[in-house]
Design a protein that fits this description.
Immunoglobulin-like
């Protein structure tokens, strides 16, 4: 399953500050069970307020993942966003 993950902010983001380059990106997707940083495709959508994180392959059923958005992401005024971290498990099934 490779459904996009979305993180929404309350104001438009500077798209050039959003990058998903493995462990060095301003947005990271980490698979805990394999200790691997994935390299999803990241775009800014929704009027510039949503980071759309699209895995390039299927997420592994039963695995835990972590998403981080660093404070190097800024709004259109150049103000850093509040850093954000969230974890989730890819559930078994379809």
């Amino acid at each position: 399953m490779n459904v996009p993950i979305q993180v929404e902010f309350n104001q438009p983001l500077q798209a050039s500050t959003v990058s998903c380059n493995g462990s060095s990106g301003s947005v990271t997707l980490y698979q805990s069970s394999t200790a691997t940083y994935l390299t999803p495709t990241c775009t800014v959508i929704g009027g510039g307020q949503v980071i759309n994180i699209a895995p390039t392959g299927n997420l592994v059923s039963g695995s835990q993942y972590q998403i981080k958005v660093s404070s190097s992401v800024t709004d259109t005024g150049g103000v850093p966003v509040q850093a954000f971290t969230s974890s989730f498990n890819r559930r078994h099934g379809r």
